[in-house]
Specification:
With 437 residues, the protein is an alpha/beta fold. Helices cover 27% and strands 21% of the residues.
Length: 437
């Protein structure tokens, strides 16, 4: 039990722990629902003593106080995926967005491209061997902790003890801050067939589910469309999960015996994920649960790993798609909205899977029907995440079409067929002007 002596010796207050941060340092923060607020708030309390500190993470929950304009020049955020709390700072030029496939990000920590001075982690209390679980977010956190010069851990009894390749030993932690606090939660969309507001995602979900067979392995994100897909999966059997993240809807399907993971080609019997964005329901589900195996993003998002799953179904979203098949998923025109995430990792992995189906699902319109999401041309400055060469299935509330192996003329015809009827004539006119029809 010597580790316990070291644990006790490393215990400090949050304010004491963050004194290791120097001006010019890069601080990696555990993101998502696992943001260690005791540490981030203590860091911000040192604002008068610091300058040019870079705070790096992917999407995080909460207010992110270091993004306040009053801290410009003191803290600057580097977003590997832009969350809602960071969009204004990025748009104002006070924070930096970074285009990166999440499967590649860990390599940047290890090879020194993005050296990490201090890593904030949020962990469960140690077990009898001195191992703390990274809990609800393993993702890029394990690699960051491995590569960092200094690791500071917020130890929280409310953090679930997730299982898998997601542990950090007390010996690898430099400073320990005990602070119990509820984790951030992300409530799920609750589909209601009788609510007109949910009609579009429910139709999209039903169209996606028509492409899913019993025994398939799935990847999906969070939001109204993935939750609608999960709602419609109740007629399926023996589904598996290998996914970047999951939320409450997946928990329901496991408990109902629909997701069993019994037919998976790889990691059979296990639901593999990098992190969760859910509520306490999901956090309690993953606690010490051997059906869930958390792995770092460099494994979960590895195209070769994904492709080893037969019948891999990858379900991702988009902001808009042009009639030749270019998918914009990270920006609205030149304004960065989110990031690459794992979209192309899973699209390419599913494309190489035996029987796999890469799917992009999106509503046919935006802004209450004012704008078509299936467009003649992407907005000027819009980024392309999934290229024409990678695109396969596109699903809207008006149907599902497969663009793979199709000419641009055929693609235009197929995409116009699942566009909103109000915009089909306009799209067809453009296609004819461009000699696509």
């Amino acid at each position: 039990m010597r580790w316990l002596e070291r644990y006790q010796a490393k215990k400090v207050s949050a304010d004491e722990a963050v004194r290791v941060i120097n001006s010019g340092d890069r601080v990696k923060v555990q993101p998502g629902c696992a943001v260690p607020t005791a540490l981030t708030e203590a860091m911000v309390r040192r604002a008068d003593e610091l300058e040019n500190v870079e705070v790096m993470h992917i999407l995080s929950m909460g207010d992110a106080p270091y993004l306040d304009p009053k801290y410009e020049g003191i803290f600057r955020h580097r977003a590997l995926f832009v969350g809602e709390n960071a969009r204004k700072a990025v748009a104002d030029g006070r924070a930096d967005a970074m285009g990166i496939f999440l499967s590649d990000a860990a390599r940047l920590f290890y090879d020194g491209t993005l050296p990490i001075d201090v890593c904030f982690v949020h962990v469960s209390p140690p077990d009898e061997h001195g191992f703390c679980s990274l809990g609800v977010d393993v993702g890029l956190t394990k690699a960051a902790a491995d590569a960092a010069k200094v690791v500071i851990a917020q130890v929280n009894r409310l953090m679930p003890r997730a299982l898998g390749d997601c542990f950090i030993h007390v010996n690898k932690i430099d400073h320990i801050v005990e602070h119990d606090a509820p984790l951030f939660e992300m409530p799920q969309f609750v589909p209601d067939p009788d609510d007109p507001k949910t009609e579009v995602p429910m139709k999209i979900g039903a169209n996606v589910v028509e492409l899913i067979e019993d025994g398939d392995t799935m990847q999906m994100g969070i939001g109204t469309i993935p939750d609608a897909v999960l709602y419609h999966l109740r007629g399926k059997r023996d589904l598996g999960v290998h996914t970047e993240l999951f939320a409450d809807g997946v928990v329901d399907l496991v408990e109902e015996g629909i997701i069993t993971n019994d037919k998976k080609t790889l990691n059979r019997g296990k639901m593999v994920a990098g992190f969760v964005l859910g509520t306490r329901k999901t956090f309690d589900f993953i606690d010490n649960n051997p059906i869930v195996e958390f792995r770092p993003t460099e494994y979960v998002n590895d195209i070769n790993v994904i492709a080893q799953h037969n019948n891999m179904v990858a379900i991702n979203s988009a902001i808009e798609i042009d009639i030749t098949g270019q998918v914009c998923a990270d920006s609205i025109g030149p304004r960065v909205y989110s990031g690459f995430g794992g979209q192309l990792d899973f699209i390419r992995g599913a494309a190489r899977s035996k029987g796999g189906k890469p799917i992009i699902a999106l509503p046919s319109t935006a802004k209450g029907g004012e704008l078509s999401r299936i467009v003649s041309q992407l907005k000027p400055g819009a980024g392309v995440v999934t290229t024409r060469g990678d695109v396969h299935w596109i699903v809207s509330e008006y149907g599902a079409v497969n663009l793979h192996g199709r000419s641009y003329r055929e693609r235009a015809q197929l995409l116009i067929s699942i566009a909103h009827p109000d915009f089909r004539d306009e799209l067809e006119r453009y296609a004819r002007e461009q000699k696509l029809l």
